[in-house]
Amino acid sequence: MSIRTETFLHVTDEVEDLLKAHIPYSLPLLRRLQTSKYRQAGASTSTESRTILVTGAHDDGRPQHQRFTAAYLDLSGGPETQMWLYSTLENAKLPPSHDDEAYYRKQLSELVRAVTSLVREYGSEAMHYPGGLLLGTLSTPVRRLLEDMDRVRPRATGYYDKWLFRAEDLPPEGELAELPRGMRPLLASLPSEVIRLDNGTPVAWAFLGPDGSLISLHCEEPYRRRGLSKALAAKLMRRGPGAYADDGWASADVAGDNLASRAMCKSLGGTRHWEVSWVLFDVTDDGVGDSG
C-alpha cells in the first residue's frame, strides 16, 4: 500500500474525528489540536503551525485511515513543546510485527520529510533549538522507531508515566475540601483553578497544558494537608480545557520517582498506562547519525 501525506494550515474536522476514534492513546495530540482549533483560533499565523496527516492510500489515491500517523507543529513555540505526535502504532497491545514495523517506519519517514520541508520554509535560523523541535509526550514505541531513524536527541528529563483519569472516577464534588474561611476560588481565563486569600494572595493553583494535561499543581506550605490540591485538580480535570473536550478523559505526565504526584494521581482515581518522554526531534537533512 502506498503512503499519502497531507499538510493542513488549520485543524480539520477529518483529523479531529480520526483522533477521537483512538482515545485514549490519541488524547495528547487531540487536545493540542482542539486547543488550537477552539481556544487559540486566529492566534497563530499560518507560517508557524501546521497539522500533518500520514495515511495509507488506495489505488485510486483515496486515503486509507486504518493505520495513520498525525502530528501538530508550532514552529515558534520554543522553548516550550513545539510538536505533538500520535500513531496508531501506539494502540497495539503486543510488539508490532515485522511488516507492521516496516509500514510505520515508512509513515514516519514521510512525516520526517514533511516536517523538515516545513522547517526549511520557516527558516532554521528562527528555530529556538538549532536543528531540532521539542517533541513532547512521545510514546516509547514510536520513539524507538525514530531513534532507529536517527531522529531523536535524548534530553536529561528522562521518561514519564502517562496517567489517565475518567470524569466518573474523580472524587465527587461533595467529597472535596471546603475552602477555609478567608479563601476564595478564582477561575482564570486559561485552563486553571486558583485559590486566593481575600486579599488576593494565591495559595493554591492548578494548570492544564496546551495538550489538556495537568502540568502544575501547587499549594503553599501553610495551607497544605487540607485537601486543597486534590480539590483543585479534580475540579479542573472535570471541567477540562473547554466545552469541546466532552469525552470525559484527562491526563497527567508523572516521573516514576515522583512519589507524591503518583499518590495524588491515585487519590484522584487515575491509572498509569504508558511511558512517554520529551525529546528533540532532529530536523536536519541527514539526522543525528550524520550531523553529530
From TrEMBL:
Top-level taxon in the UniProt lineage: Eukaryota
One Pfam family from the record: FR47
Domain N-acetyltransferase: residue ranges: 140-292
Record Gene3D superfamilies: 3.40.630.30
Gene Ontology molecular-function annotations: acyltransferase activity, transferring groups other than amino-acyl groups
InterPro entries per UniProt: Acyl-CoA_N-acyltransferase (IPR053225), Acyl_CoA_acyltransferase (IPR016181), GCN5-like_dom (IPR013653), GNAT_dom (IPR000182)
Signal sequence bounds: none
Protein name per Swiss-Prot or TrEMBL: N-acetyltransferase domain-containing protein
